[in-house]
Amino acid sequence: MPDAITKDDISDVYPKVSETIAEALGRDVDEVTLTAPLMEELDAESIDFLDIVYRLERQFKVKIPRGKIVEDARGPLSEAEFEQNGFVTEAGFTRLQEHMNEVPAERFRTPFKVRDIPLLFTVETFCKLVIRAQKKSAKSPTG
Amino acid sequence: MMLFQASGLADKAVIITGGTRGIGRACVDLFSAEGADVTFFFRNSTEMANEIVASGRAAGQRITADQVDVRDRKACEAAVEQVAERCGRIDVLVNNSGVIRDNLLAMLEDDDLQTVLDTNVAGVFNVTRAVIPDMISRRAGKIINVSSVSAEKGGRGQTNYAASKGAINALTKALAVELAPRKITVNAVAPGVIETDMSREVVELAPEEVKSRILLRRLGTPIEVAHAIMFLASRYADYITGHVLHVDGGFKME
What we know:
Structural class of chain B: alpha/beta
CATH superfamily of chain B: NAD(P)-binding Rossmann-like Domain
Number of strands of chain B: 7
Largest interface: A-B, 8 and 8 residues
Largest sheet of chain A: 2 strands, antiparallel
Number of helices of chain A: 8
Number of helices of chain B: 9
Mean pLDDT of chain A: 90
Structural class of chain A: mainly alpha
CATH class of chain B: Alpha Beta
Mean pLDDT of chain B: 94
Strand order of the largest sheet of chain A: 1-2
Radius of gyration of chain B: 17 Å
CATH architecture of the domain at 7-77 and 118-139 in chain A: Orthogonal Bundle
CATH class of the domain at 7-77 and 118-139 in chain A: Mainly Alpha
Strand order of the largest sheet of chain B: 3-2-1-4-5-6-7
Low-confidence stretches of chain A: none
Order of helices and strands of chain B: HEHEHEHEHEHEHHHE
Oligomer: heterodimer
Shape of chain B: globular
CATH architecture of chain B: 3-Layer(aba) Sandwich
Radius of gyration of chain A: 15 Å
Shape of chain A: globular
């Protein structure tokens, strides 16, 4: 699993990610712990994710396409396999839990609405987003 | 220098779409004369764009031109990113690109509808979406959309154009709501009948009738619209958002 994200990978990017998120949300950096859910604990709104991703792109000099977290969460599943009428399917739910393993199990509840996925985002989710973008750009330096 | 300080536009990074002619060109002239660092997008008129850049730079102004089709989302993203890298930020966006394909509804070709909606509406979405992450992260920015009197007082043969500009008014108000918490203002100007290449054909059909519908009894000039746009981009309009400012000499429909 050359693409697996290790704890060391997370530790490497976490200080800058937490600083960036703290700046975007106007919070004290101490509040931005690795496990903090952004919407529930740090009062982030969906528009803040745009801001955070934009700042992370500049901070880490990587490109992160809009909607990348949800797209990655879906993984190999097609849209129809992942969601039905706005709800995450059973297969999608399994995939989501695997992919977002930084989120405590009790925060996954069925039925789960696709639009509620951002409620799951923690600071670690953004660390992983950055690491994946770094790995991708290392593989294809020209983008 | 006092004048520059007054409007607060000196050194501001400004993007103007559709900058080679009419209202867009007047905005390029006015903002750059005010000391702003202006980048304008244009689609076809390369020669004209080069002339504007050359004459502006000869006068010591900061003007850059970029050939961008606003209907192309990726091209908009790339162009905006270049401006953000060069200027370090984007302070003002003037969404001015627009086309007309006037005809009676029954005679409209599918393409006449799509072309107008693609440029006048989707084009505004494309450029604005590319610009707002920077404005959001800085908690500052001013977006001015060029609408039209047709949005509220559409004339015969203007269903497609009027619909596109009605969409711009609606978009302006909804986006103002979205972006107000990030201290970004979003406004529109709604020009009436202005002396531009775009309106010439319409006016030439019945010049006196057109004037009779304008309280001031004359057509507007591009620079008069640009003044209103500059006002909305300036510090004088810091407390104005979600507004459609009519610049139409008192246009009335009968």
